[in-house]
User: What shape does this take?
Amino acid sequence: MPYLTDPRELGSLIGEEPSYRASQLHDWLYKTPVLTAAEMTSLPPGLRASLADRLWPFTVETEQSADAGATRKWLFRADDGMAIEAVLMGYHNRTTLCISSQAGCALACTFCATGQFGFDRHLEAGEIVAQVQYANAWLRANPIEGSPQRVTNIVFMGMGEPLANYDRVRESIRRMIDHIGMGARSITVSTVGIVPGMRRLADEPWQVGLAVSLHAADDELRSSLLPINKRYPLAEVEAAAARYFETKGRRVSIEWTMLAGVNDSVDQAAKLAPIALRLKAHVNLIAMNPTPLSVDQPSPRPVIEAFAAKLDELGVNVTIRNTRGQEIDAACGQLRVRAATANPG
Ligand code: SAH
Assistant: This one.
């Protein structure tokens, strides 16, 4: 399948055709993507036909939209039955795609739907890139009114922990930069704090953004929410984030999901402030999106505002993020909910 094939090996897909066909195919896959091989008009019909059912490494199982068409979620199904989800969000100056790096997740963060259903497997680099190119092909045919007609920003905030699938994620980023032509700065890797992965990413030649899912400012609370904190405690995560900032000159962002009565106290804000100030990080607050197996509830808006006000008073840059696509289970931590229902095995 093209997307499971290294772009440098596209020649193997063109059969007896002359070699310039490989470069035409490369353009169709990476520069001006289309949803079907039939639309690859510069290729001869026979070649198009031979590519027809192997253009994508998955089928589209469901496509849902929300927010008056500005949010779109796809549930893709790989040949082995694995669900892969991606969410496209149109804004006035950017079009952001939230992609998955694993089918499921092994990290079992208490409030995240993906973690609640366990780990299935890593996604291949081609399966990660195909999410991007499917969205790009879709956007070329179906523009979101008022938003750029291509994916301008990528966030690894869908299913899975990208830094637990390092080599494949790295290769997918390389293809996004070298073949699709995206700027490294418009790609953000979000991590629960896999310290060795953060260090490796710091040593890559790209100015990729890093978001750290902190959610708690002391080890006891953080370990109770994010079991991986027992392996990579807060101080080590902070040190790796500081090194990322020093190496890249790019500020990391801190993600903080607001769980009512759990991590939303002004006391936690006061403990978070020195960490954020030392890292010169921007803090993003997001109300928890309810998930089926979690007992937690989103913090009420006034509590979130008080938390933000405390950070602000202590000199921290902070934004309260609005959630997108909640009614189609496309919001953070909700991916996989419907997929699990559709495929309980
Ligand atoms: N594993 C990576 C990326 C996927 S999760 C990470 O942990 O960063 C993307 C973001 O969504 C993380 O900040 C995660 O903590 C957050 N998230 C998970 N479940 C959520 C929920 N139910 N409500 C709101 N945010 C959630």
About this structure: The chain has a mean pLDDT of 92. The radius of gyration is 20 Å. The chain has two domains: 1-55, 56-342. Residues 1-55 form a domain with the DNA polymerase; domain 1 fold (CATH 1.10.150).
